Amino acid sequence: MVFAQDSFQIKGIVASSNTLQPLEGVNIIGKGLFSVSSASGAFTIKAVTKGTHTFTISHLGYTTQTINVDVGPNMEALKIFLDESTTALHEIQVNGKTKKRLNKESPVVSQLVSKEFLTTNRENSLMQTLSKIPGVSTINIGSGQSKPVIRGLGFNRVAVVQNGIKHEAQQWGNDHGLEIDQYGIENIQIVKGPAALVYGSDAIAGVVDIQPNAIPSRHSFNGEVNLLGESNNDLIGISTGIEARGHNWFYRGRLTYRDYADYKVPTDKINYENYVFTLQDNNLRNTAGKEANASFSMGYVSDRITSETTISNVNAKNGFFANAHGLEVRTSTIDYDSSNRDVDLPYHKVNHFKITNNTSITLDNHSINVDLGFQNNIREERSEPTPHGYMPTPPNTKERGFHKNTFSLNVKDAFQPHKQHQVVAGVNLEFQDNSISGWGFLIPEYTRFTVGAFAFDQFEIHSDLHLLAGLRYDFGQINSKSYFDWYRTPINNANGSTSNVYLQRAQDKTLNFGNLSASVGLSYLLKNTTFKINIGKSFRMPLPNELASDGVNYHMYRYEQGNLDLDPEESYQLDLDIDHTTKDFSLGISPFVNFFENFIYLNPTSNYYETLQIYEYTQNKVFRAGGELRAGTSIINNLQLDASAEYVYSRQTSGPKEGFTIPFSPPLSGLFSARYQFKNAFFFKQPQLIADYKITAAQDEIVPPEEKTDGYQVLNMSLLTQINLFKTKQPLDVKFKLNNVFNTKYFDHTSFYRLIDVPEAGRNISIALTQTF
Length: 773
Known about the structure:
- This protein is mainly beta.
- About 5% of the residues lie in helices and about 55% in strands.
- It folds into 2 domains: about 5-80, Carboxypeptidase-like, regulatory domain (Immunoglobulin-like), CATH 2.60.40; about 100-770, Maltoporin, Chain A, CATH 2.40.170.20.
């Protein structure tokens, strides 16, 4: 064998010229020759012939070098130093605005409610949770139900929207709550003042807009489990939710169950209609209940299309405070005090089934949103079959039944015809079909169809000055159906004889309504201060109970009579809002002035029906003014202080109650809150102590037959912390809460039960546990 004498090896190292540290993975490439440097920067190229060879040395992040190497005997090791390279990228602009910024630019007076706020302040119902917001209160009906009130107006004057669809149930009733599961909600926008421009009728006072949750991130799976226990009404509850997403498809699901007993009040007796009732162990008898909710959604998301379909069902059974239902408990054979968890007569059952689809399509300069919804609301009110007047003993316990189907369609197109203009145009359609059952009549069967078209433009005069102007027209038709009593009533004829007839309570009637809404406003951002002014005209169509009711409402022990000649309510309102926020301090004020041309209300008369006073729906002019004041500071380390106040002034300026206020007008009130963040201690992480002190003035401004309400002060305390209990990545969130610390006896002027001498709930200790995964 003969070996060539002109074959050699090239050895060397490669390092950074900046740090002199060896570089790994450097490519050394020549013609037919190749090597890669090791972790120490060394490389070897074998079987290289004698002569001059050219090599290219390259590495990511470094400037490529080209070198010539003379290969021969007695070669020395090479030392190569690479310079770090710099790459000049073209300018990239990211354009977008946060929800907070968009809210500031909009002249509409509104407030964003975060998931953190909802979790921290969660109470028995969604509206009780939101009542901590200035200008928002509730009409409470027992321990498990409540309805929203914004600036003293509630019922169908406040629209509740979930996933773009207006929630439709029996919200006209005094004792009908809101069938929405408050768990799993991430964001809510509270609109104060007329919002009929976008939402149509029933948004004359404001809107509670429960917005869709954020879409899960790609290839994710997470969820949470919520446990709740309360001492006042022995409540136990659990809610668990999950969500997941692959690449384009995602889904969510949630189950909630709550079971509670009669709740306790800080008194042992009440006086209703001059009857004194004794309460055993302070239990407000027959206010127990159960609630079971379920929801599931599936969605698809791509660059241009986002679509989600949600199916939900809320089912509840709640007792009515027995002593408040027509005084029948005086003669009842039911032992209401045998158990505080029984749901005896009278009670109500409600099941609300909802399907919604929200689809957003992006087409060049247009963003088209389509919302579809179907809702089925079934409500039954059951009570002991008792004869009243000429009505014999009913055949069963079903006093009233309401069955309501609602179909909704919203189409909205947002586009920019010019860089400074953001135009939104849309149409809303809704059809309702309402049937009734049971032996007690209050409102007739009816159908209702509404259609509305709107357009508004938000014009950016410059980056800190925005003008919003819009117009809307709505048309509505209500078809009520005739109703005759199921029993005969004797009437006196003109000739002196007597006839037994089935009295007609309602007639076949078709009513049409049409109206315009308009709004114009300005917002100006000056460094840390935002100024808003908005003036709007809105309206509300009369409800079937206001038009055609003709029966006994035993919850209020009165006879209610509608008026087919009612016109739509028309409201004119001026809103101002000034907000100054810095890192350590915030101050805001939101005054308003409001005038109703024809406010609809239930007026007591001097007439009676079978010993029951007759209340008639009528209209008159109403002037309202008021607002909210808020302030906060965090100038002291770990301590956040907040204060707020709200006030509403109302006057009827025409009609039989001229000079009086309107029912359920909230008095002057203030809320002072302190939150202190402690250091981690033992196994408690980020412990926070929160104290809320509410001061409410007496309400002397009433409308007969309302009674004056004394002022009160209530202290609530909370302790929030986290514990790594299961050694998982997500800690266990723990919340201890003590409501009504001193077991104060007080009456909330906006509470339904205040009218029957029932105070608010007594002291309550609750513990809430939340484990995310």
